Amino acid sequence: MRRLRWVLYGLGFSTLTSGAWIAGLSIEMYELSQSLALLSVIWIIRIMVRLFLQPLAGSIIDRSERSRAVWMAYLFSGWFGILCALWINWKGASVLTLLVVVTGFQVFESVSSPGLQKLIQIALPKQALNRFNGRRLAISRSAAIVGPALGAELLAKTGSIVPLIALFALAQIFLGWGSLRSRVVGPRVSTQHPTLYAVLKDGWHYAGTRKDLVAIFVLAATASGGWRMIEILVPALSHATVFGTGLTGPAYSMSAVGSIGMGWILSRYQRDYPIRWILLSQLVNMIPFALFVLTPTPLGIIMAVLVTGMNADFHDVVVSTYLQKTVPHEFYGRTSSSYRTILAMGALPVVVATWLHIIPTIAVASYVSLVLLGLGGIVIWRMLRSADASYSFTISK
């Protein structure tokens, strides 16, 4: 655990500055364009980059010796951010420039994030993964509460988004240094797979032969759309006179509060949770959305945000730990990247539908969330009932 302490600190610093940068980006984009629809473009770009590059990134990670791909991605991301900050400071901010910055950061994140998960998998014994992931969640979500408020405050004080980009870039460099300092050496993919395409194909074939991984992927696709609906419901509060604008900030904070609470629970009760528990958490997640549809009150949406924050992070920690403990090192990069690709695929239709005004009201968004979460629950329940005895969806001792 000690060898990864700088990685843990870096994750907190990165989450803090990422929240600040994204919050400042949203404000700056709206001021430049005066268009709410354009804010959806930010999410569409991030999702599309992940959708197309994540499988390739997984292959790069698995082919990389000494975790070189991880720290190089972080360092390149940091230097890219610094160059962009200097450019914007010289030329001024524009919608196009900010979209380029978002795209660049997301490209590097497609490699660095799953690569860091593999680095953690290699560096820690299985019995330490639960504890580390619980700490990671608690630190990251604590920073997530402060980040957006910090970003809005810095943007208001300085009148420029440059400091936010520079801070996030420094956080990426710090994480790259922490990853390099950990000196983790992982196995390399066999030379029988000389091309990226061959490695990618082999990884997808491996995932397809495991029913437990298929179940996780299906659940991720439906759950991601349901969670992303929170990104639509919360901003909609400020435009609904029945709620008033004062609840937007508290509603955002409740997601992070739920995440921190779940991180504390998982840190305190360290055990291997079966995948069936994710199904249960998803079904529980439907309750506040159903109550909000029946009785649309401010308390209803805040409870939906709170439970969604808890559910999403329970899903994150349980799946991350499960993959780290059950997927061989040589397949982990591609498996983790495939999982992240599925998450992006699940969220994309919801974001695009909102951008095209197909989901026009809070009530419709809540119904869509219910359908997505319920559909995932039904599908996974069927898969669990037909699961072979060899795939108990628990971690073997």
Walkthrough of the structure:
The chain is mainly α and 397 residues long. It has one domain (2-181, 196-385): Growth Hormone, Chain: A, CATH 1.20.1250.20. It is built from 13 helices and no strands. The chain has helices at 5-33, 36-63, 68-91, 95-123, 126-158, 162-181, 196-208, 211-237, 248-268, 276-294, 298-326, 329-355, 362-385. Helix 8 packs parallel to helix 12. It is globular. It starts with a helix and ends in a 12-residue tail after the last helix. GO terms for molecular function: transmembrane transporter activity. Its main location: membrane. It is a multi-pass membrane protein.
Could you report the average pLDDT, rounded to the nearest whole number? 73
**CATH homologous superfamily?**
MFS general substrate transporter like domains
| Poorly predicted parts | 387-397
In DSSP terms (H or I, runs of 4 or more residues), the helix count works out at 13
* Order of helical and strand elements: HHHHHHHHHHHHH
Question: What gap, in angstroms, lies between the N and C termini?
Answer: 21 Å
